[in-house]
Design goal:
The chain is of the alpha/beta class. It contains 15 helices and eight strands. The chain is globular.
Length: about 300
């Protein structure tokens, strides 16, 4: 199942973004933000199943065919990227759908710019304040569930290791070992995603998201700025779609997200599904997106 996809390049927030676009031009707009270590292709299964929407799936800053500038991987610049993309693409209050790291950015974006989107749909991405607190307090063993975060703080070594043939195999396993049902994930698409990381520079900038977020927590002025963002409650409807078989991001932690978002959150669990929902359960995810569009 291959959707008819147009590939465009737009200038936004000082860099050039590659954006994949599918669906009718007059259909309701959806902006999709991918996670780590993915790219726009992780949304292709949904694009194929949802022709009644106009779906925009960018490679985020530092990924794939989007520019890889040397800076701008902090959450303030990254959420400004989203704002600038909405403007550059001419989107009027799109539905914002985001997964994993894209989900972290989606929550922060909704605190800063709720008025620019119709609704937030976060997929296996807890509110970042919720997640950081859980890490610091080791709630539900959250601290030891994400061992790659401290590993990524080592300069340059992780990206050098993970872009070797053995490292790319480890990246592939990071996908397939997190599926809820064995064999459910689209292995061909996983191979396509992993093959983008051929040299250390290809992975350096995606890893920079983690390094900058840790820096934001450690530098008092940066942490204070983010705390100020969180004090503005999210003022649009929020839906969380969750694959409960996610061993790295447990439901018990994620369900505290509403407290930090300052708004009610609609929970839509997908039983038996793991972390990479669009790669494993695109049919179920499309049903949820179609339901939200209808509301």
């Amino acid at each position: 199942m291959r959707p008819n996809i147009e590939h465009v390049r737009v200038q936004a927030n000082g860099i050039t973004f590659h954006v994949a676009v599918a669906g009718g031009k007059d259909a309701p707009p959806i902006l999709c933000l991918h996670g780590f270590p993915e790219g726009w292709m992780s949304w292709r299964p949904v694009m194929a199943r949802l022709p009644e929407a106009r779906i925009y799936a960018p490679d985020l800053r530092g990924y794939g065919e989007t520019d890889h500038p040397r800076d701008g991987y902090d959450v303030f610049t990254l959420t400004d990227d989203i704002r600038a993309l909405i403007e550059a693409l001419g989107l009027e209050q799109p539905l914002l759908i985001c997964h994993d790291w894209g989900g972290e950015l989606g929550w922060i974006f909704a605190h800063r710019y709720s008025h620019l989107i119709r609704r937030l749909v976060a997929i296996n991405g807890p509110h970042p304040k919720t997640l950081v607190r859980a890490v610091l307090r080791c709630e539900d063993l959250q601290t030891i569930r994400i061992p790659w975060v401290p590993f990524f703080e080592i300069p340059w070594f992780p990206e050098r290791l993970l872009t070797t043939p053995l490292g790319r195999l480890a990246l592939k396993l990071a996908f397939v070992l997190r599926e809820g049902h064995k064999g459910a994930m689209d292995r061909t698409l996983v191979d396509e995603l992993v093959s983008r990381f051929q040299k250390p520079e290809d992975l350096h900038w995606p890893i920079a998201y983690y390094r900058e977020m840790v820096k934001t927590q450690l530098v008092p002025s940066k942490r204070a700025r983010l705390d100020a963002v969180y004090r503005t409650p999210i003022s649009i409807p929020v839906t969380v779609v969750w694959g409960p078989k996610d061993g790295a991001l447990p439901v018990r932690v994620a369900m505290n997200s509403a407290l930090d978002a300052g708004c009610e959150v609609e929970w839509r669990p997908l039983p038996g599904v793991g972390h990479f929902v669009s790669l494993e359960a695109a049919d179920k995810l499309t049903v949820e997106i179609r339901r939200v569009l209808g509301s």
